[in-house]
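Lay summary

Proteins are chains of building blocks that fold into shapes. Our project writes down both the chain and a compact code for its shape. Here are two examples, one after the other.
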Amino acid sequence: MIESPPVLIRDGGVIAPGYNAELDEWRALADGATDYLDRLEIREREKLGLDTLKVGFNGVHGYYIQVSRGQSHQVPMHYVRRQTLKNAERYIIPELKEYEDKVLTSKGKALSLEKSLYEALFDQLLPHLEALQLSAAALAELDVLSNLAERAWSLNYCRPVLQDKAGIKISGGRHPVVEQVLKEPFIANPLSLAPQRRMLIITGPNMGGKSTYMRQAALIALMAWIGSFVPADETLIGPLDRIFTRVGAADDLASGRSTFMVEMTETANILHNATENSLVLMDEIGRGTSTLRRFIARLGLRRKPGEPHQGDDAVCHPLFRADNTAGKNGRRGQRPSGCR
């Protein structure tokens, strides 16, 4: 098989040249059509003196010789009209028809032979399928680990410290993707979540990096828990069982749900399944409603449904992205868990 075979066998081009002599012969005949057509076009144009003559191929009518309408009266008698266009006439000659049959036959035979060779190859591999799958899994794991190691070395990642104590502390954190596409240096950011400071409200102007900061935190946490080095100067990560995200704004027309309904449905799923060891990203909940209603919704999300308010009572590690007013203008006596 070739190094990068197509997804589907139906179009051919899977078996590498040199594997089967008969297949190579049929392919050579089919692939040589372009050279033959170029030579035929030059020959007929010079012989007949028709500067508009050209040879081409159409998926419906096959090969043809095309001549402009103004010169069509000069074609010889053995030119058989195949198609009439607005400004041109298309013809076929016995020589071209014979070659067309040969080429189309060669393409079909090449594809049929290639499919049979492909199936025979699979029959030979079938007894070794289990060993091949184990080898593929091992190579895939090695590929991931080697790439993570290369990225850690070349991009100056740090080794995270996984601890039993709940919380996340990141010093000099960077977004692993955004950092690579920026033309200017990425500005590193710290992050701190602890049992006494479980929630952050991230505010700032548009295009200020709020969403990038949130996603950066989730990516660093995920990379740490899969055993990778992370893009930061120093990282301490406590237990994490899940990462929940409520990001983006889109309705669900097929189900008859508005953008707000989609947000609330996904938010309810988070509230019912998040634990004290879950990291939650909430990107501007309640957009499309008033500032006060957005703030009330975010305030209510600090507690599990049905539980009374008791100070800093977030049950997980939520990061809220908010606009400049909804996050900072809290009610009197309401102490924020953290504002960034």
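And here is the second example, written the same way.
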Amino acid sequence: MQRNHKVTQQQWLAAYEAALVAAVPALAGKVDWDTANYFYYRGGDTPQGAAAHMAQRWADHDTD
């Protein structure tokens, strides 16, 4: 599900949110939409890949 004409921004962001909250339940309702939109507009990332990256960053930051 990469950014293309078949996937709307809203669909991409919804998939990103679902994947991120599944990986890090503590982020429910706390998704950083600026970062999510950055990944969307940059292109090349699946919502799941972008969410996995952010979940890892959250885990690294949370354990510091």
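What can we say about the second shape? DSSP finds three helices and no strands in the chain.
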